[in-house]
Q: What sequence folds into this?
């Protein structure tokens, strides 16, 4: 399928690794000009070089900025230029007993997982509406619908992300601008892989065995394996394309069947 992204300009937050990097690579391969983002200049430059190798004819650039910081976002967007596609991907996660999570940690979850998308969307949405076309995609999580007891700040912030996206979509009524979310399931991103590798080493068990044990613990999984970042990226590319023109205000699942509700 030709997703018609030639000539479109995309910004992907938190895209030096994991799902964000996979999204940037898929966007480039589909013809979009892509700006990648991370907090570290060195990691941004490394990601840009990797993408140039992966997609030699792609137009890719990078910018280092902490999108959880409003001043950094202001500076970033002033220098970025027009954006046709915004992918709010950056996020933080962690497993911790509810009583051990401090107020500062709660605030960090909301600054990264919610307010980064709020600030970036605020900068681009009016311009998209004025230009007559645009796409905003929030990379959320099934944990925003079925909040894990050991990841309450993460789940709560992802639920808030879904609410923001749904509200923003209502501002696009009657236009060719859309705002959608993706409910990703257990994905073997770089961050998850590092955690699994560390636990496997500490417990002296094979990493593959631990991976299967984690998925087995999610008894509702229909996929029965971790999702790959590229599988999330494919849905992001579709939602970013003119092909998805009838989809707006939606939270689409790429969860591997973890969620058990019909809707």
A:
């Amino acid at each position: 399928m030709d997703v018609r992204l030639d000539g479109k300009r995309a910004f992907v937050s938190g895209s030096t690794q994991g799902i964000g990097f996979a999204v940037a690579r898929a966007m480039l391969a589909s013809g979009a000009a892509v700006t990648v983002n991370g907090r570290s200049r060195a990691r941004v430059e490394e990601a840009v070089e990797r993408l140039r190798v992966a997609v030699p004819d792609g137009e890719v650039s990078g910018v280092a900025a902490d999108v959880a910081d409003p001043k950094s976002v202001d500076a970033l967007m002033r220098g970025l230029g027009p954006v046709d596609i915004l992918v709010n991907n950056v996020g933080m996660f962690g497993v911790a007993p509810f009583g051990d999570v401090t107020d500062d940690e709660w605030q960090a979850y909301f600054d990264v997982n919610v307010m980064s998308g709020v600030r970036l969307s605020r900068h681009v949405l009016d311009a998209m509406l004025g230009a007559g076309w645009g796409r905003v995609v929030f990379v959320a999580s099934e944990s925003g619908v079925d909040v894990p007891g050991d990841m309450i700040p993460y789940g709560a912030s992802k639920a808030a992300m879904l609410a923001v996206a749904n509200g923003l979509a209502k501002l696009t009524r009657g236009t060719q601008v859309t705002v959608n979310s993706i409910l990703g399931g257990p994905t073997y991103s770089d961050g998850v892989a590092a955690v699994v590798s560390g636990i496997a080493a500490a417990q002296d068990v094979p990493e593959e065995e631990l991976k299967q044990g984690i998925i087995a613990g999610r008894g509702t999984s229909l996929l029965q394996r971790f999702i790959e970042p590229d599988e999330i990226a494919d849905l992001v590319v579709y939602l970013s394309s003119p092909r998805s023109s009838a989809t707006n205000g939606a939270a689409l699942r790429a969860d591997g069947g973890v969620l058990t509700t019909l809707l």
